[in-house]
Amino acid sequence: MILDNFIVFEGIDGSGTSTQLSLIKERHPDKKLFFTAEPTNSPIGLFIRSILKGELEIAPSTMAYLFASDRNEHLYGREGILAQKENGFIVFSDRYLFSSLAYQNPICPEGLPEKLNENFPLPEYLFYFDIEPEESLSRVHMRGETEIYETLSIQRQTQAEYKKILSAYKEKNIPGMHIVEIDARKPIEVVYQKIMDTLVNLPIYTK
C-alpha cells in the first residue's frame, strides 16, 4: 500500500535530512504541511531516544520491536500520519521503516526487521540522502552530542545496508512509489531545490 502525500527523508546520521525539513517548513508556512520524525515524541519514542543516548542497554531484537511499535502508533495513533492526511496535510517524516531495516538488519536475527515492518504502508516519495560516513560524522560531532549508532563502523555498515535496501525497492518497481537519491554533499540550497523540483506536482505549490 502506498500513502499518497507522504514523503520520507532517509540517510545515515548527519546526512542533512533534518536541515532540509526545517528549511521546507520555514519557507512554506502557508501550506498544509505536517512535519514529524522517528523515533516519535510518544512515550515509546522517548524511551527509544533514551536508549539511543546510551542511558540503558537492551537486546537488538528488543530495539527492533520498540521501533516497530513506535511506528505503528506513528501511523495509526489519534494524531498520527493517517489522521494528518485525512485532515488534508502533506506529511513529511524524518526517517521511517527504511531506517529500521538499515540499522537493524546487521544486528538482529535474520529476517526480523523485515517481518516487523512488512505490513506498514510505503511513502509516495522516498528521498535518500547519500553521503560518506566520514563527512556525515564530522557534522554530527559539530553538534556536540552523539548516540550509540554514531560510530564510523556502524555508519559504514548502515550506508551499505541502505544501498541494498534502495536497490531492492527499485527492483520491485512499486507503482506509485518514487525513490530519489540526493547527493547530500551538495550545498544546502542545491539539495533543497532538487527536492522542490521533484515535488513540483504536489499541493505544496498550490495556494
SS element count, helices: 9
CATH class assignment: Alpha Beta
Percent helix, as a range, is: 40-55%
Distance between the termini: 29 Å
Task: List its traits.
207 residues, alpha/beta, Rossmann fold, five-stranded parallel beta sheet, 9 helices
Description of the molecule:
The chain has helices spanning 17-27, 43-52, 60-76, 81-86, 97-104, 112-117, 133-142, 152-172, 188-198; strands at 2-11, 33-37, 90-94, 122-130, 178-183. With 207 residues, it is of the alpha/beta class. It has one domain (2-198): Rossmann fold (3-Layer(aba) Sandwich). A 5-stranded parallel beta sheet has the order 2-3-1-4-5, sandwiched between helices. Helix 5 packs across helix 8 (152-172).
